[in-house]
Amino acid sequence: MIKRSVSFYSYQESYYTGRKSLEELMEYTGKTLGADGIEILAEQTPVGSFPNPSDADVDMWKGWLDKYGVTPACMDSFIDWMLYKNSILTLKEQVMQMERDLKLASRLGFPVIRVLCPVRKEVMEASIPIAEHYGVKMGIEVHSPMTFTARWITEYLEMMDRSGSKYVGIVPDFGIFQVRPAKKRIENALRSGARQEMVDLLCELTEAHTPFAELTSRMTAAGANAAEIGLANSFARTVYSEPKVLRDIAKYIVHCHGKFYDMDENCCESCIEYEEPLRVLHEIGYDGFISSEYEGQSLFGVDEFCDELEQVRRHQEMLKHLIGR
């Protein structure tokens, strides 16, 4: 069964400006949105003191979970392998950071940690016994421009098969299903001098999954101005994956990231496909969470208000409609 959760990365401006506390965000997610679970970045919205909250902090956290009717879905892990200016962390040091995060996730009740895709497979493989000890799965995030056929990921899949462990898997990020620039990004470009006909051409090219080099060449040949080239360049790291690819990696999926940039008034995402990927997840029998992950904050100017809570509400409404609960 697919369950709805919210990544608290979505609430970053609300949290850092002090408009909402961690507890208030948990209340909004559980009581107002009716989401099943929550996902946190333990360094960004810490429970007590990261990475070693007191027992009292953990008890308080668990009390909030009960009070607001939400379940820990996933905790995000960041292996800071460039922690020092003059050296890269050794394999042992990176595994120690992974153990730090697995231990914290276990204390807070998270069954999964999401691991950023640049983390080497050797770090994940060496951490499997630790994950098994704490009972927490590690999921490497597949995030655009990465694809499931890239060597980096196929080698991960080979390692997972070789290990035979259920404590290592994949977290697909729905940014891999992006088909056009976000509506807010387009509005910004139009205000900066982009022409509607050129924006329409760009969307036609991105919806046809045109490779980036060809896309920019076609835009330049059509006489694109600086604002239009800037809009095209926003797709430099966007590589589309067919939703059917989820069938091929079904047994590896431990969590899903519902990336989104711009939800309109009708609760539709302006640039990322959702209906087909969710249909595939239903068909393969995916039993787990999909976390709403809002990343549209950067599209707003310093004098503009970004209503993160409303954006997340709209996304949750869309998910509720598409997954039927």
Please describe the structure with a list of short key phrases separated by commas or semicolons.
globular; 2 domains; alpha/beta; 8 strands; eight-stranded parallel β-sheet; TIM Barrel; 325 residues
The major sheet is characterized as:
8 strands, parallel
Order of helices and strands: EHHEHEHEHEHEHHHHHEHEH
Distance between the termini: 10 Å
CATH fold annotation of the largest domain: TIM Barrel
If helices are DSSP runs of H or I spanning 4 or more residues, what is the number of helices?
Answer: 13
Q: Shape, please?
A: globular
| Order of adjacent strands in the largest pleated sheet | 6-5-4-3-2-1-8-7
Instruction: Find the CATH superfamily of the largest domain.
Output: Divalent-metal-dependent TIM barrel enzymes
Quick one: how many beta strands? Answer: 8
Query: What fraction, in percent, of the residue positions are helical?
Result: 40-55%
Secondary-structure-derived class: alpha/beta
Mean pLDDT: 96
CATH class bucket of the largest domain: Alpha Beta
